[in-house]
Amino acid sequence: MTDPRAAQWLDKLDCQELVMKLARGIDRCDAELISSAFWPDATDDHGIFEGAAKDFVPWVLAVLKGMERTSHQICNVLVDVRGERAFGESYFVAYHRIVEGGAERDMIAAGRYLDRFEKRGGEWRIVHRQAVYDYTTQQPASDADWRKPPMLDLLERGRRFGDDRSSLDRRAWLGSD
To answer: Is the confidence at residue 161, as pLDDT, over 80?
Structure first.
């Protein structure tokens, strides 16, 4: 006999994977990956953006082009599955390197993503995302010593738009999709 919790666990895992994919898509500026997390009729509400998820993708990519880099940490992912629908609450801490008036600053935001998921044709995707902000701060960038030799030459830095080490290594190891 199969434990019915196994199917529910797989559904939860699929939903959690979507949350992680979306964070990676944002940080790597990967429009295709971001779009793949949402159903075509999905909506997104980030406060400063509220509308169709298909419109969120070009909007967020334009915003991200104005930042040197971002890093979204996802934690405490809870998913409540009820048949073909699920509700998720995922805590996040997001780091954003921005330049204002020629000075580099780090903006840090923390909060939760409230996601509504639907399973259609056996596939889970997000149908609505609401960002809730619990904490934000800005401070001067403090990694100047890491951006000059010898550290500059010793550390692999994250990149965006498909030329990040993880994207390059994945394609080399698994081949192109």
So the answer is: no
